[in-house]
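Operator note (shift B, R.M.): manual run for ethanolamine-phosphate cytidylyltransferase requested after the automated queue skipped it. Running by hand, logging everything below so the morning shift can see what happened. Input copied straight from the record, untouched. If output looks odd, do not overwrite the archive copy; leave it for review.
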Amino acid sequence: GRDYDMVHYGHSNQLRQAKAMGDYLIVGVHTDEEISKHKGPPVFTQAERYKMVRAIKWVDEIVEGAPYVTTLDTLDKYNSDFCVHGDDITLTVDGKDTYAEVKREGRYRECRRTQGVSTTDLVGRMLLMTKTHHSNIDNSDYQQHTDNFGKGPKGHSPWTGVSQFLQTSQKIIQFASGKEAQPGDTIIYVAGAFDLFHIGHVDFLETVYKQAERPYVIVGLHFDQEVNRYKGKNYPIMNIHERTLSVLACRYVSEVVIGAPYAVGKDLLDHFKVDLVCHGKTEVFPDRDTADPYAEPKKRGIFRTVDSGNGLTTDDIVQRIIKNRLLFEARNQKKEAKEIAVYEAMKSQAEGEQAGDSAQAAQ
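Run finished. Output pasted below as returned.
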């Protein structure tokens, strides 16, 4: 049972490990109410979170509204032999280990946390992102906040060095399906940043997947530099390696091109024997030479615009998270006491002696 608010490749990797320990993986996902009680309001609604977890290819079944504490009763109810959790401890509101009971009965297994990513870290990257670009947020209090949040004791971000994600061929192999396209498959190609892989992406890929009887979906991921060229700001928030794993974890995806050319040209279409190229309702940015990146598939008559009915973008998510920033801070405060102590100290400096007391308390 997890809240799976902002599902990232770290969670997917936990689920992959869990699935490898058994035959059938059931994932309990908590309601908004449960999460609010224990952690503060989630960024995504329970409907979004259920859908997101269902889209991860190692998941066989989800339990909606799973209890926060996994009991033996819960395991028995779903005929589960054991439950799996990351090797970070989870405590209830009153400070008890939520897994004490199942551990006693020997029905608890552990999987390793993925180095390089956590929700806290991603939120940090987003808050840093708006440090110099307000996009549409213009008040000085917000600016003050991000300035404080974005600097560590030596003047650079507390998150530098947090995200040490090292890609290896082994990791890619573990995430990849390894299935080749079969005769009779419709090979569908889509391209983009797929940054902070989210429910908007899932809905889009599911729609693409449904364009054919036997779809083989190839996702072309643009390199970081390319994404930054057309998205600006500090995008992408996740680097190419992180984005590769995030997309590979999705059950609608068969293959990923790591660092796809921006223009979908002859070579790519011929090499993969592409039958159909899809793009969502979002804006298509022109290529460096102002050309339409989809000119070739359009010329071949294999280009299709699909509407997933979900207009959610990575930008929207960053906005949602910033809106929730104070709640996140409260959440991060518990998790990242040290970083916050620094943040508090800087805030109190700015606010004069009256705040001095709270800085002491923060220590």
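Quick read of the result: The first strand starts at residue 26 and ends at 29. The CA atoms of residues 155 and 345 lie 14 Å apart.
Leaving this for review. - R.M.
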